[in-house]
Amino acid sequence: MTERDASHRRRRRSRRLGRRRVRRILLVGLVVVSVLLTAGGWVTFRGWQARSHLVNAAGLAKELSVRVLDGDVARAQRTLSALQEQAAAARGATGDPVWWLGQRTPYAGDDLTVVRQISVAVDDLARLAFPTLLRVDLASLVPKQGRLDVNRLREVSAEVSRADQAVRRSSERLRAVPVGGLVAQVRNAVTALRTELDQLGDLTSAADRGARLLPPLLGADGPRSFLLVSQNPAELRATGGMFGAYAVLRADDGRIRLAGQGAASQLSLVDPPLKVAPEVRRLWSDLPGMYPADVNLSPDFPTAAALYREMVRRRTGTTVDGVLAVDPVVLSYLLGVIGPVSVPDGPALVGGTVVRTLLSDSYRDRDPEAQDTFFARAVTGVFDAMFTKTVDARALLTVIRRSIQERRLLFWSVRSEEQRAVVGTRLAGQLPEQDTVPTVGVFLNDGSGAKLGYYLRFSANLTVGACQPDGRRELRLRVTVHSTAPRSGLTESVTGLALSGDKYTARTFVSVHTPSGGAVLSGRLDGRATAMGGGTDGRRQVAVANVEVGPGQTRTLDVTLLTGQNGAGTADLVLTPTVTPWTTQIVTAPRCEQ
Questions:
Q1: Of 38, 232, 427, 494, whose CB neighbour count within 10 A is largest?
Q2: CB 169: neighbour CB atoms within 10 A?
Q3: What SS3 string covers 220-240?
Q4: What pLDDT score does 326 carry?
């Protein structure tokens, strides 16, 4: 064979090998494409299944939450069975190997991961949270026939705590899942479920705290005593209203009895004054340590409660273990659950009218001494009825939760282990020492020596502003005060000392507390620069403005603040509870890092 023939044969063999390699590559490519198309089709099919199951599961979970809150156990059990079936199917549809591979692909991977996270969260809710919750007998958390079974309450305490933890874990997992890129049907279902779980979590949290705190407070380990104080928002103070009527309650083995009652007006002026913190003294001089009506000029409830407890002890010789404060709005919520309550020598107390009865009609129809007596009887009458009447457990827990959320129900214990259990909650009546988000406090104190607070309406708008080079952020606060007071016809019990110079003009000292580590930059009243008193409250600056408003008038206070070194795009407001709720708005912005 010539060299030419050998070369020709080598070229033909090379071409045949090349064609084989091309065929192999094409075949492998075809197989890969087929696998990818099949996997993609499988993921699409499973995604369609998951979406269907998720929408059904989210709807059932929302329905189940409503059943639990309503106390409809039989229907709740049926709903739970359906929920568990749908949730397990959604988890299964997003848990196979093909879905796992799909999570690691570009573009679609993130969406598949989110759907998987939601599926797991809803399934955990169905398997862990709701079954635990349905095993809890919330009726054991309310009194029966004048007594709360403290031993039974201790037995269910661990179960209540597990239910609360399970609900909160599920809620937090759902809250952490980004839903912006989801299809509308799934996004809307998950958003609705989040809202429902937040409400359920508030209820289980209140039940958990109550189950742990109530046994010792109600005398499971020996007799206890407390002051039940009525705050009067007709005469505003920072925590809600002037401490007026009070009752001494004795608790023993789950039973509560009235051991005495009185009013702030019966307590003596304290001279020399009780010791108050230097920061409080710089803002309010010695007044909180001298006058029972002024113990809560500062918004810190533990400080006010400790001062009032000592004043009662000095005047009456009675030493108590703690102080519980309520206001007429709390009584209206409770009456909505327990029904009308009769009071000796007075009209029946009804949920829809009790606020007007206590804060308006009583001043028109009674002298000051009779007003104090009526107030004390009203508060003790409602709490006595709560212990002796048959009430709906969930309805009662719901109004207690609402009262705590609105900072109308406050508690302080002299025992450190009990006080630690409420610190950090709204029940404690304190601003946080350190903000998680910038928190602005707006607190009100009457400066008229009158009871015109019943006629005042308040709003607060807080706008998150520009980021500063040092990591702080500007906040713009606008507070409006409107008076609905008449121009004539009020009794002297209402117009009082008229320190504003006019009987029908309300003078209110508005105290603005900056976020922790923040500062006050400026203040304007009705568009004009205004003088503001100043001080500090821990790591917060405090500015105090005098706002006087006559019948039909509206005044506007604008305060510019700085946060601490916190670039958050949101903020929070803590406000003095008033007769009618504040109108509030918080305008957020992107985080400074964004």
A1: 232
A2: 16
A3: CCCCEEEEEEEEECCCCCCCC
A4: 96
**Using one digit for the tens of pLDDT, what is the confidence trace for 394-421?**
788 889 889 999 999 999 999 999 999 8
Token representation of residue 299 = 């918004």
Residue with tokens 């609705």: 192
Q: Are strands 519-525 and 528-529 parallel, antiparallel or unpaired?
A: antiparallel
**Distance between CA atoms of 434 and 363, rounded to whole angstroms?**
42
Which residue did the predictor score with more confidence, 565 or 192?
565
Joined together, the tokens standing for residue 464 give 């998150």
Contacts of 486 (CB under 8 A, 6+ apart): 504, 551
As a whole number of angstroms, the distance between CA 345 and CA 326 comes to 22
Query: Is the previous residue joined to 368 through a cis bond, with omega within 30 degrees of 0?
Result: no
Residue type, 233: P
Based on the number of CB atoms within 10 Å of its own CB, is 171 exposed (0-12), middle (13-18) or buried (19 or more)? buried
What is the model's pTM?
0.81
Give tens-digit pLDDT for 487-505.
999 999 999 999 999 999 9
CB count within 10 Å of CB 573 equals 16
CB 237 within 8 A of CB 322: no
Q: Which residues, at least 6 apart from 316, have a Cβ–Cβ distance to it below 8 Å? A: 260, 262
Q: How many whole angstroms separate alpha carbon 179 and alpha carbon 189?
A: 10
Count of alpha carbons within 13 Å of 229, Cβ hemisphere only?
Answer: 34
| Spatial contact of 90 and 53, defined as CB atoms under 8 Å apart | yes
Between vectors from CA 351 to CA 347 and to CA 355, what angle results, nearest 5°? 70
Q: Does residue 370 carry a pLDDT above 90?
A: no
Which residues lie across from 460 on neighbouring strands?
A: 479, 584
Cα 426 from Cα 407, distance rounded (Å)? 6
Residue 131: partners with Cβ closer than 8 Å, 6 or more residues away: 80
Strand partners, 230: 326
Contact present, 260 and 318 (Cβ < 8 Å): yes
Q: What are residue 444's DSSP bridge partners?
A: 510
Model confidence over 49-67: pLDDT tens digits? 556 776 787 778 778 777 7
Going through 484-581 in order, the beta strands assigned E by DSSP cover: 506-513, 519-525, 528-529, 533-537, 540-549, 554-562, 572-575
Count of CB atoms within 10 A of residue 451's CB? 26
Residue type, 399: V
* The pLDDT of residue 185 is above 70: no
Angle, to 10 degrees, between the axis of helix 393-405 and the axis of helix 328-338? Answer: 170
Please give the sequence-ordered ranges of beta strands (E in DSSP) within 384-498, or none if there are none.
Answer: 410-413, 439-446, 456-467, 473-483
- Quick check: 548 pLDDT over 60? yes
**Which residues make beta-bridge pairs with 435?**
none
pLDDT band at 519 (very low <50, low <70, confident <90, very high): very high
Higher-scoring residue by pLDDT: 228, 95: 228
How far apart are the C-alpha atoms of 238 and 324, rounded to whole Å?
Answer: 16
Q: What is each CA distance from 533 to 510, 511, 512, 542, in whole angstroms?
A: 10, 9, 10, 8
Identify whether the C-beta of residue 573 lies closer than 8 Å to the C-beta of residue 542.
no
The per-residue pLDDT for 433 is 87
